[in-house]
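Cross-posting from the chemistry board since nobody answered there.

I work mostly on the small-molecule side, so proteins are not my area. We synthesized flavin mononucleotide and want a rough idea of how it might sit in this target. Sequence and SMILES are below. Is it possible to get a predicted 3D structure of the two together?
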Amino acid sequence: MAPKKEMTANKITMQSLVLCPMLVVTKDPKHASGVNIATISYVSVISELPAMIGLAVRPTRDTHRLLTTTGEFTLNLPAPDMLKALDFCGSRSGRQIDKASVLELALEDADKISTPRLENSPLVLECKVIKSLDHSRSRQATHDFFMADVLGAYHREDFRLDRQPSIVTTNFNYRLVETTLGQAFRVWKRGG
Ligand SMILES: Cc1cc2nc3c(=O)[nH]c(=O)nc-3n(C[C@H](O)[C@H](O)[C@H](O)COP(=O)(O)O)c2cc1C
């Protein structure tokens, strides 16, 4: 087998990982919609029980300011038909525009926090920030890390955990994952 080539660990490297971009809704009273929405793909499960989620967010994002000041957010899985909204929310800043109003995205009240959820999202987590790691200041890193408790989890009635087609990104391209290759923890035993 050919030897592996070394590459610089940077933005291009991180974008060659397979990432699952999510829509992060934060409360923003300056907009008519009352919210800001940003696309965040650096999302990590920190703990299953208690359920905890982490987000890596650049300090330049308006979402960074809103996560810091409001201390809460909803994490919305985008349905495949939300691709345009997903890309728009990741390309324009809430500092200039009210993205929810421009995109006419329907919002619904959350159960456990005061930040709304996206009505069309198949799966939503309601989260409260418990700690932020300011890597941008302490290590001159590009992103800070927000750790949050998941206070509530909700899914659309038609959501099928095992069948939901998911949008992923790799190498700056959006792709749809639809094919099940086998069940985790079982493939090694019976091949699928
Ligand atoms: C597919 C995709 C994934 C993104 N992931 C992140 C991310 O993980 N962290 C981050 O800080 N910005 C990420 N961004 C960029 C922000 O979404 C973008 O800068 C957005 O305009 C920020 O909006 P805001 O200023 O209203 O918060 C991503 C953008 C796209 C298109």
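Reply from a structural biologist on the board:
Welcome over. Reading the output above for you: The first strand starts at residue 22 and ends at 27. The chain has six helices and eleven strands. Happy to explain the token format if needed.
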